[in-house]
Design brief:
The chain is about 65% helix and about 0% strand. It is mostly helical and about 70 residues long. α1 runs antiparallel to α2.
């Protein structure tokens, strides 16, 4: 039980950090395509990494919840 809760909390923190970065990891040239007032200083790889961490976090949290039930 404690190990499952630890990993669920761990992935929740990872996912929350990735979500809190918001538009920062977006490619810096995105302003040419999509005008918005946010900061974008990343590149395509940072954008993909952010998406991967968010999706992985959601998947691991879901699996943890299912395992606890």
């Amino acid at each position: 039980y404690h190990i499952i809760m630890f990993f669920m909390s761990f992935w929740d923190v990872i996912m929350s950090v990735a979500i809190s970065l918001s538009t920062i990891p977006m490619p810096s040239d995105v302003h040419e395509i999509y005008p918005f007032a946010g900061t974008a200083v990343g590149n395509a790889s940072t954008c993909v990494a952010q998406g991967f961490l968010i999706e992985s976090g959601m998947d691991f949290i879901l699996v943890s919840i299912i395992t606890l039930n």
